[in-house]
Specification:
Order of helices and strands: HHHHHHH
Number of helices: 7
Helix content: over 70%
Strand content: under 5%
CATH architecture: Up-down Bundle
Structural class: mainly alpha
Shape: globular
Largest sheet: none
Radius of gyration: 19 Å
CATH class: Mainly Alpha
Number of domains: 1
Length: 189
Amino acid sequence: MANLLTLLRLLLALPVGWAMANSEFLSAWALALCLFAAITSDYLDGKIARALGTASAHGQIFDHSTDFLFVTSGLAGAVYADLVPEILPILITVAFSQYVLESYFLYRQKNLRMSFLGRWNGVFYFGPLLLISFARLLEDNQWATEIIFSGLNLLTWALIASTVLSIIDRAIAPFTHQRSADQKPDVKA
């Protein structure tokens, strides 16, 4: 059941990306409905997997990879429409690649190794897509759309900065972890 919810989000990635690039592809309400379905599926899939006892490392990578594909598809469409800077989906790709490679190859874990900043970035990456959707719903109200696009600009640059910080944090973590392990006193009982 949980993987079906994740699959729904994966299937919505391309239409949402296309709709971000071309506002005539989906109506404003259809885009809002797709985003609502995607965010709801993201919220529920893990809860359902844990409740049913079906949570697994494979399910986690499927969920996180789907989140990555969904937001980068949507943001790539927004880049095409000149709504967000192209650096954001590029940085998300770098951060996600680093997250997966570090988890599986550097730390040799069977699960993804989450970080505090990376987790919150993952939540807020849906934000620009939501703001664009709200602006399309309110396109007849010039004042509201100007405020929404100002918020979109602020959120986008905040996400760029926090993604860069997350990448740097993950890059230096192995060295600070090793240094703190080296500095612990050798206590013998």
